[in-house]
């Protein structure tokens, strides 16, 4: 029995020495003089840009500190689709004694595409006064796009309407049907369209309500106006359809810009308004 305890004691001492030697061989990271790993804090950012402009900050982390301010260097990757007039990059760098700095990307609303988005791809190239520099996440993609207020501009909106056959609108049936509807956030509903000579319209249409006659003025075109007051948060526009593929229309905002159009054959559904043009 004594021999068993003695053997166990020798084994315990040996294991203790083994683990002690392993602990002594561990490498302790040095945040001052060690190797510097630099990295973007993210690989992707969205930048919606309203008319008044917008910017996004992107952090760059360095694993070591420095007693002087450090400059961050980035370059635009050839895969970028954004043009230089669409953005501005500023590089404030990393302050002395700090591990994290930022770059700022600002979007230019006027230069951005009216529809869709554009991509700015940046590569992290250098962080000055950093020891034995290596990179982690060294690329970031910023997606820039216009962000427009979806509240309709207060004032007079004009809806211009045409029928290429010249017999008014037939939207859901061969004889007539509803017109374009506009539903405001306060519950107000407008309905506009060209009258048809084949049936009595259920709304205050534009045109004539007499039986079709070749001697009467034609039913080819007409315009309607609606007044959208201040404080309206949204307006939903809906087109009921084009039974004979003869109907076209355009919607003009108070500033005079055409913000939506429909051509003969446009299917029934919501009308997409270009809020950036209103």
From TrEMBL:
PROSITE patterns: PROKAR_LIPOPROTEIN (PS51257). This is Calx-beta domain-containing protein. It comes from Flagellimonas oceani.
């Amino acid at each position: 029995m004594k021999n068993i305890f003695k053997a166990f004691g020798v084994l315990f001492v040996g294991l203790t020495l083994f683990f002690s030697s392993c602990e002594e061989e561990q490498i302790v990271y040095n945040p001052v003089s060690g190797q510097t790993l630099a990295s973007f804090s993210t690989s992707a950012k969205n930048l919606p840009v309203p008319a008044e402009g917008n910017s996004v900050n992107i952090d760059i982390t360095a694993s070591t500190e420095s007693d002087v301010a450090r400059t961050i260097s980035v370059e635009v990757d050839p895969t970028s689709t954004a043009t230089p007039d669409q953005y501005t990059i500023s590089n404030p760098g990393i302050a002395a004694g700090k591990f994290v700095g930022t770059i700022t990307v600002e979007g230019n609303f006027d230069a951005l595409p009216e529809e869709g988005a554009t991509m700015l791809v940046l590569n992290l190239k250098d962080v000055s006064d950093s020891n034995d520099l290596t990179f982690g996440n060294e690329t970031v993609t910023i997606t820039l796009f216009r962000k427009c207020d979806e509240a309709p501009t207060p004032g007079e909106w004009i809806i211009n309407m045409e029928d290429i056959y010249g017999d008014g609108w037939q939207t859901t049936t061969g004889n007539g049907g509803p017109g374009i509807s506009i539903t405001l956030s306060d519950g107000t509903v407008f309905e506009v369209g060209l009258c048809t000579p084949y049936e009595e319209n259920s709304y205050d249409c534009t045109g004539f309500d007499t039986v079709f006659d070749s001697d009467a003025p034609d039913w080819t075109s007409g315009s309607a106006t609606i007044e959208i007051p201040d404080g309206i948060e949204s307006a939903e526009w809906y087109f009921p359809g084009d039974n004979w593929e003869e109907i076209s229309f355009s919607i003009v905002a108070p500033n005079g810009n055409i913000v939506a159009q429909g051509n003969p054959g446009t299917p029934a559904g919501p009308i997409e308004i270009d809020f950036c043009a209103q």
